[in-house]
TrEMBL record:
Membrane topology: Multi-pass membrane protein
Coiled-coil annotated spans: none
Name of the featured protein: sn-glycerol-3-phosphate transport system permease protein UgpA
Keywords for the protein's UniProt record, in alphabetical order: Cell inner membrane, Cell membrane, Membrane, Transmembrane, Transmembrane helix, Transport
GO CC terms in record: plasma membrane
Length: 295
């Protein structure tokens, strides 16, 4: 009996198999997203007992707030910096490990481990290392004559959070880049080497084009990660400070919704954040993907 006859005999089986994933999507994504869109058009009291329809007033307030534009700028700069740093480092590490003959398994294991660390724990770890008073690495920087204090210096705080977020994501990118390197036919590289192509020439002409699908996928995933999944790091290291230097959109949603109890404004920010990330993803698929060959 083949697979098709099995499905024909049990017409509900495909739906039963898809039901758990569908339930998870509905409960944890579609329903909260729908609630956010609904609340964005209301002003709700902190206890959620009453609400008043205000149409686009929440959006109008946000779009007229200079601090919100600063959060947008911080989020975009943060996403670009994290994506470039984490993917660039992971690409180099995967390139080296793919050509390593001794200790490859141990090296891969050590490079993958950081991904298992929870974002909040990773943030606390980096804070302990770089705290200007008791941080081990911070003491080395200060001893070297660097005026290091991310608690007061916004630029230092921004790059500290970028470094922590990139470090957390390097393992994820490394796994995919290493798999991409291993999927490249060795015969192509050997033929190019016989023809006299050096390492740089082989990388530019053969490796990078064949790695384009993997790179495109990772760009999309890293942008989503930087916008949505770095809340724990920012909260543990800087809490959006100093002076809003590390205040991203996702962290501002949390502050306005859970600290200031501005439920309508927080929901409106969530909607705008979804639109921004959705627009960036659409641009990537509509324009960047057209330049990528999957053959």
């Amino acid at each position: 009996m083949d697979g098709s006859s099995t499905f024909n005999g049990h017409k509900m089986l495909p739906y039963i198999l898809l039901a758990p994933q569908a339930i998870i999507l509905i409960v944890f994504f579609f329903w909260p997203a729908g609630q956010a869109v609904k609340e964005a058009f209301f002003i709700t009291d902190p206890f959620g007992q009453s609400s008043q329809f205000v149409a686009f007033e929440n959006f109008h307030y946000l779009l007229g707030n200079a601090e919100y534009y600063e959060a947008i700028y911080n989020s975009v700069a943060f996403a670009v910096a994290v994506t470039v740093l984490s993917m660039g480092t992971a690409f180099v590490l995967a390139f080296i490990v793919d050509r390593t003959t001794r200790g490859k398994m141990l090296t891969r294991t050590l490079l993958i481990w950081p991904y298992a660390v929870a974002p909040a724990i990773a943030g606390i770890l980096w804070l302990f290392l770089f705290h200007p008073t008791y941080g081990a690495i911070a003491n080395l920087l200060i001893s070297a004559g660097w005026d290091w204090n991310p608690l007061l210096n916004g630029t230092q705080a921004f790059w500290l959070v970028v470094g922590a977020a990139a470090w957390k994501q390097i393992s994820y990118n490394f796994v995919f880049f290493l798999a991409g390197f291993q999927a490249i036919p060795k015969s192509l590289l050997e033929a190019a080497a016989i023809d006299g192509a050096g390492v740089i020439r082989r990388t530019v002409s053969i490796v990078l084009p064949l790695m384009a699908p993997t790179t495109f996928f990772l760009i999309t995933m890293n942008v989503v990660y930087a916008f949505f999944e770095t809340f724990g790091l920012i909260d543990a290291i800087t809490s959006g400070g100093p002076g809003g230097a590390t205040m991203t959109l996702v962290y501002r949603v949390y502050l306005d919704g859970f600290k200031s109890h501005d439920i309508g404004g927080s929901a409106a920010q969530s909607v705008i954040l979804m639109v921004i990330v959705g627009g960036l993803t659409f641009i990537q698929f509509a324009y960047i993907e057209k330049r990528i060959s999957y053959r």
